[in-house]
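User: I'm curious whether this sequence folds into something compact or stays loose and floppy. Could you predict its structure so I can see for myself?
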Amino acid sequence: MFPKDTVDFTVEIGDSALPQDAPIAMAQPAKLQLLFSNGSPRCVACNLFQPRALPSLSHHPVEACELNPLRPCVQPYPALPMEQVFVLWGIGMNAVPQCNQERAGINFLKECMVRVAFGDIWWSNTLVEEGEEMEVAVDHGAMPKTGLSTDDVISFDINIRGFVEGSQILQIESSTIRETKYPDYVSTLDFSAQNLRYREPGIRMPAFILIPEDEGQLQNIVSLLLNYSLRIRVRCGGHSYEGLSYTADAPFALIDLQKLNKVSVDKKSETAWVEGGATLGEVYSAIAESSSELAFPAGICHTVGSGGHFAGGGLGFLSRKYGLSADNVLDARLINGSGEMVDRSKMDKDVFWALRGGGGGSWGAVCAWKIRLVRVPPILTAFKVFKHGTDIVTETVNRWQYVAPEMEDVIFMQVKVDFNERKVIRALFEGTYLGPKTELLNKIAQSFPELQMAAADCKEMSWIESIAYFDYNIPVSELTNRYYYKKLYFKVKSDFAKTPLPESALRGLWSRMKGGFPSVYTVFAPLGGKIGRIPSSATPFPQRAGTLFYMHYNVFWTESGEDDYFLNWMRDLYEYMERHVSHSPRAAYVNFLDLDLGTGHASVEEARVWGEKYFGAANFARLVHAKAQVDPANNFNNPQSIPPGVINYNYDVKSMQCVYLS
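Assistant: Here's the prediction. I'll summarize afterward.
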C-alpha cells in the first residue's frame, strides 16, 4: 500500500503487443489519462469529441471517427457552467471496445475499481468493466467546500483486478496517483527506445510505465511490483543494444528513471552522487559546471544512461589513465530483490562488487551512484587523423595494434574503419592527449610515425568540449538533451584481442565489411594503462592485463523488414573473426549486449553459456553467489541476467581457468 503523501509518480498504462493487422485506432495503446473540460472531452483515438456523453447530457451522433470506424464520435457537449467533466480513460483497455478481442489478440484488464477524489474528498467509487470508460460529473454547487478549484490535482485510487494472461493476477491497491496530465504512452515508451528493432509490430509493450521522481517513490514502486506477477524492467537511457531495458517476453512494468537525473558534485572531496536515471551528458555537464579540472572516465554518447553504463563496466577515452567507470564507483544505493534500500555498508561485499561491471538488470534498481572524479588539465588535445585505401588502412591499423595499447596512459587513440560514399575504405584515428598539442605531436612522431599526424589534425579544448566534439560535434549545451535523434535499426557484436590480428585477417575483415555497405563500421579501442594494472578479479570486468584491445562491429539500417539480411551478414562476419580473437571462451563486452551468445536465467547451467563470455569463469561464479545474496527469488531478470545459485570451483592462476567441482 502506498501512503498518499509519498506517491506522486507519473503512470502510463498500455496494452500488450498489437498484431500487425489491428485496426489503426489500436496502434496507440490505451493510456491512463485524466481529461478536464468545461465543454468537450475529446476522443483519445482521433482527437475529435468524446464518443460517449454523460447520461444527463444530450448529444448528437455524427459520422464515425476516421481512425475508429467501429465507434461513432459525438458533437460537442454544451457548455456547463455548473459542471466539470472528468474522464478517466484506459486502465489497460482499448479504445475500441466493440472490436473482437480474440481476432485482435489483445489482453485486457478485466475490471478495475476507481475512486476519484477532489482534494482529499472521495467523490466517486466506481467499478469499471472491461472495455468501458468512466465519467464523473461533479456539481460544483453540491461539492464539499475543500478550498480547491477544478484546476487542482485530482487523485485516483486504483484497484486493478484480473490481468488476463493465463492465471496471472495483478492487484494494485491504494496506489494513489496525483497528476493532472500524463505524457502520451507511446511517445514516452519511444523516447528512450534506441534500437528500432525492438519497436516493431509484435514486440510486447509494457502494461505500465512508471516514472518516479525521487528515491522514495522508486522504492514504493519496486515494493509494489514485487508482489505481483509482472516482470520488472528499469530503464535509464534505453541504450541496451538488445532492448532488454524496455522489452520482455511476458507481461511487464517499465520503470523509467528519466526524472531521477540529479547529479550532486562535491568539489572539495572530488566525488559526486549520480541518480540512477542521469545520462552521461547530464553527469559530464554537472561536473564541468563545478570545475574545469574535474572529469569522469566513461563513454562518449551523451544520451547513454549512467546506470547501465556503470553497471557494465564503462569504457571511455579516460579509461587508460583512470580505469573504467566501475573502477571509480565508491558507493551505491540499491533497491534489492526484497524491496529494501541498501547502500554499500549494508549490502554483501559481493553485491557491491557485482554492481560495478556485472551488467544491468540482475541486482535490483540502483537509486544513485557515488563516483570518484578524476583530474584533467584545463586544456587537453583532441585529434582526428584519416587514412584512405586498403593498403594504407591495413598498414596503419596493423601498426596501431602494437602501439596504442603500450602508449602512455595520458594518450587514448581508437580507430573507426568504414567506407566513404565511393566505397573506398577509410580509417579514422581519433582520441585525446591530456596535455598540449606540441607535446602530442612529438610523442606520436616518436612512437607512431606511420600515422603522420600533423598540427592541423589536433585541436586544443577543454575536457567537456572534447566530449561534445567526439559526439558528432554537438554544442556543449546539448549534452543535457536526453533525446537521441539518430534512432536506427542496428546490431552490434564485440570481441577482445590478446594478440595482434595478422594483416590477412584485417584484409579479410575489410572485404567482408563491404557486404554491409554503406551501413557498417568497426571500432578498435585500446586497453592497457590503468585498465591492465587492476586485477581481473577486482570487478566483474575481466579483460585486464594481457588484453590488447577490443573491437565492436556495427551494422545499422533505416527500413523495417531488412533485419534478416543484416543480422545474417553480421553473424557471418563474426564467425569469420573467431579464429583471430580471444578464445576459451571467446570474450565479449557486456555493455554491447548480444543475445546471439545465448540466453537463459532460470539455471546456472544455461546462464553459464553466455555469462562466462562476458565475465570469465571465476567472475561469473562470484556473480551467481552475489545474485543469491541480493535477489534469491530472481525477481529482477531478463534473458541475460545472472541467476542465483552457488558454483563450487578451483581457480588455476597460471592457466586462468576454472575447474568446476559440482
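Summary: The two ends are 43 Å apart (CA to CA). The domain at 4-256 is CATH 3.30.43.10 (Uridine Diphospho-n-acetylenolpyruvylglucosamine Reductase; domain 2).
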